[in-house]
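Protein: NAD(P)/FAD-dependent oxidoreductase
Species: Billgrantia ethanolica
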Amino acid sequence: MPQRHPETSTTDRLVIVGNGMAGHRLVEALLARPERPAITVIGAETAPAYNRILLSPLLAGEMERDALTLRSAEWYAEQGIELILGERVESIDRTSRRLTTDAGRELSYDRLVLATGSTPARPPVPGLELPGVHVFRDLHDADALARAAEAGRNAVVIGGGLLGLEAAEGLRKRGMQVSLLQREDRLMNRQLDLTAARLLESELRGRGLDIHTDAQLERLEANAEGQVCAALLADGTRLAADCVVVAIGIVPQAELGRVAELEVNRGIVVDEWLTTNDPAIHALGECCEHRGNLYGLVEPIWRQVEVLADKLCRANAERASAERAESAQGYVEKPTATKLKVSGISLYAFGPTEPEPEHEVLSYRDPQQGDYRRLLLRDGRLEGAVLYGDTASGPWYFEQALAGRDLSDCRAALLLGAADAQALLDDASNESPQRPAKEAA
Ligand SMILES: Cc1cc2nc3c(=O)[nH]c(=O)nc-3n(C[C@H](O)[C@H](O)[C@H](O)COP(=O)(O)OP(=O)(O)OC[C@H]3O[C@@H](n4cnc5c(N)ncnc54)[C@H](O)[C@@H]3O)c2cc1C
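Structure follows.
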């Protein structure tokens, strides 16, 4: 029986380009609102939206493929949403508000959302085009890596950030001998201080990863069949490699923005309403750039989705004046915390990796338990934390930092963790009813 969708206005068609994590989340957010436009979603991948984050446990053999699916194609149909998969939008005619896919399909839109994500960055190194060189971005990449690991030989992973580490551990767990190349002096140099990075390195070495920091990759070499067979470093080290994974970072997929002559810097430039310089076109997720910021983690993207969903529903219902309080100021940049998804290793970090002269540094280390905590405070307020081992208090620290709370009253217990520190804070506020006023000032 055909479903009725009385809440859908057929006069306003929203087209979302990209059925990835941002595009799909936007669909869910629109469905949760009372009025929404008619929606068409076009995705270049053949599979309906899946949880990209879980590609790492999938590669490591810790998860089944089906567990990644966010919603099936049938679910989209049941919601009255047109879902077109396996087609890439190639051009946008802003004057007629029409777009064209690589299959020659033409669609009109009233509002358009670009949620095209990013592509893996590639270092300018000879040999990168060789067969056997992979990236780690989508389901096809995860499949290809799993197949490469079936041969069970040597892999080289280029990049010692979150993605490189997760790829390296995944391949190691599938039986490969893995060398990991990190250009900087430490792993996860954007998140960790040297102590935490060394703890992480020694844990991973203990598991069998061959880690090279300060490594300068010079070129990749091919065997007689033209397949990649080795990575050569500037110091003369030669690492055997039947499989190479490039994981040095991401580049916003902003090509559609350029083709449509929207304002594009590194990403498609948007304002705090996720709107481009064309009021009918929005962008969100890893393809967009807001006040010079780019995105590589989902947390800020989820906040972008809420702002854009509100905006799109308001526009559709012509309720522009009834702005919801939480999104009245649009999208605002906030710090993000990082976790590593390697089983058996707990890491939680946010804020600067190195202290500034005005920072007070509190640190704690328990070599027996393998725990390390380092907090950076400025005027009693938390600005950064690196936790290795016991990370249970990480979210509490992050919450305090976001709230900008003065933690002077619990300084003595801060390193002991959330429960002790919060108890001291509670005691102090019970003793001194004036405290909140002082904090607010
Ligand atoms: C292995 C891995 C592990 C990760 N782990 C974490 C983690 O632990 N925590 C975290 O916060 N983040 C993690 N991330 C990052 C997170 O997945 C991304 O931030 C998120 O997916 C970005 O969402 P997006 O929609 O902007 O991009 P994507 O999810 O990449 O979606 C973009 C989609 O648009 C499609 N597309 C592109 N161009 C077109 C076009 N012209 N026409 C039609 N479709 C198009 C693409 O094919 C893709 O499906 C991880 C990423 C990877 C790859």
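Remarks: The chain has three domains: 8-119+251-327, 133-248, 346-440.
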